[in-house]
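Figure S7 source data.
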Amino acid sequence: MLSIKNLQVSVDEKPILKGLNLEVKAGEIHAIMGPNGSGKSTLAHVLSGREGYRVDAGSAHYKGLDLLEMAPEIRAREGMFLAFQYPIEIPGVNNTSFLKKALNEVRKHRGEEELDAIDFLSLIKKQMNLVEMKEDLLKRPVNQGFSGGEKKRNEILQMAVLNPTLAILDETDSGLDIDALRIVAGGVNKLRTPENAFVIITHYQRLLDYIVPDFVHVLSDGQIIKSGTKELAYELEERGYDWLLEDSEKV
Amino acid sequence: MAQLTNNFSDWLNQRVDTESSFAFSEAVRSPSLSKLAGGIFPTRKDEEWRYTPLGPVLDSSPGKDSASELDIDFISNLKQAVPTGHTIIFINGDYSEKYSDDPLSLDDTGLSITHLTQLKGPALKMAEDIIVHSNLTDDNIFQHISLGLSQAGLFIHVEKNAASKTPIHIIHISTAHSATSFTNPVNVVRLENNSHLKIVEQYASPGDSAVITVPANYIQLEDGAGLEYYRIGIENAETQHVCNTSVKVGASASFTSHQYLLGSNLTRSNLEVSFSGPGAEAVLRGVYLGDDNQHLDVRTYLDHAHPHCSSDQHFRGILNGHSRGVFNGLVLVREHAQKTDAQQSNKNLLLSRDARVDAKPQLEIFADDVKCAHGATVGELDSDALFYLQSRGIDKKDARLMLTRAFAAEVTQEIGIESLQTYVKGKIATSLDEIVSPRV
Ligand SMILES: Nc1ncnc2c1ncn2[C@@H]1O[C@H](COP(=O)(O)OP(=O)(O)OP(=O)(O)O)[C@@H](O)[C@H]1O
Ligand SMILES: [Mg+2]
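Tokens for the predicted magnesium ion complex:
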């Protein structure tokens, strides 16, 4: 589904990703861990098409399409979704009408009929229960004045409504209390099918107790320096990253 | 600085002799007429007119031809803004009995509306007293046009403790075949103690009629009174509009003003508010939306002459094409005006490289125990917000449109009449649909 080969990306002449390889197949959950500043969010942004990054080498293909050539909205309509590490506030744009617009753009692209206000509301009510979000948050401008946890739930709500094929969650668990964490994880587990895939960026093995990954990767200084199963996450929790960094330097 | 001869001034002075049935008494008119005879119009060397060229006004000499037939849909569209209001329509400055609501249908205890030309005796004196004691200075030549030559306008009077339930909806339509049409309506508004009223004023010019509009408004709010006052300009690109509004806000009274400058070639809107007692409040809001070569100039002057008053100003500009916006806001806090709370914010969004704005918020504070803040920003759309919307499947053009509408909605959402809010948002959305394009 997602195939990244030797991806090298720089920002303002500064190399951030330095030859990254990653293969994600349908039905899989991949966790990416790694120290602060190692390039995890950069990877997520490049994959979703944010401006300001220069691709120096390598490639990224999604469902066989050359991802790096696609406009961000086309990637989204093709089923990619990024849950932002820091969801921004958009004053004046109503959360409900924003989500309805987004869903209908995606549906149009898939050749499905657009939903009218009534059908949309019944859909969104269902998904709100899934993430246990308060209804009044829908009436407010996107993320404006939302607490940290509410912003993260709003990301998951958007994911549930748009029902993506490939979802990248950038530290969605950071800043969540234990109940919220369970709800977010529950959302992911309910959306999980053999046809879709998740890339979950996290600092905490804790999340992976709820969402069990098939693979765990360690991203350090712009490269994946180790990949393993969920056992690797336990090891990282216990030993930190230093031993890995030393190992990779020896190699 | 003087600009002594110009077509417009000559034309005005001829009018003194050729026209009749002027609104005001000789006592009010004659000082204004001698000012007009002097023919002194400001130039860009005057600090107050630095950014705004008066050429389009001064070069023209309006004529008189029969008004072109008005499309009934055009009028009903304007009425839609406040369907629950009491509508009073002026066409080229003349009261239109045909299109206005029947005055007898207005059944609102304590509220009276009189045509200025029909004012007599004590009522005329009452209206003229408000004018004579206004904030507008003697060197404001445009108010002299209104006082010396006005033939149209209303005196709106609410008696004490009366709370009017019907918004007054005044629509000025200017239209002409070939000649430039000219109007200078005057509204005088008096709200006695603890009375309340909403006024909506709309200015429109259909097609490509050339229009000059020079309105003046004199508003007096007595202790504890409350006025919501909306002005909406949706004139065509051949319209020049120079407006002056003076507001006196009494003790514990409240003045809320919204201005939407959504059309015209040139608009200059000057709003001068002064507090005439403690504990009063003024809320000033506005959006100016320019495209092509439009020039939109908003000026506010807020005189905190008494303690414990608050003022809150929030103006936003959206400028596209070669348009130019000006925001010039002066807040004066006098020495004894302790416990003043004065906030002023001006934000501008430039949608094209050639659009431009001059933002000049000014605070002059002579009291020491006050809370004052002001700020102005000029910027483009937030690229993070754009990306957020795009990352959810919304294309760049739509994302720009949503964010630009949202920028204006931060002000329009405060419109206190639901139908009017929908109407103004709709007008803004329609204009933005045309001008917002994807930019690479
Ligand atoms: N726009 C930018 N301009 C300059 N430097 C940038 C920019 N974006 C990212 N960087 C740098 O790239 C590096 C990687 O940043 P990134 O946000 O991808 O890290 P991360 O792995 O997500 O870290 P964290 O765990 O703290 O979220 C950092 O050193 C960061 O400062
Ligand atoms: Mg990050």
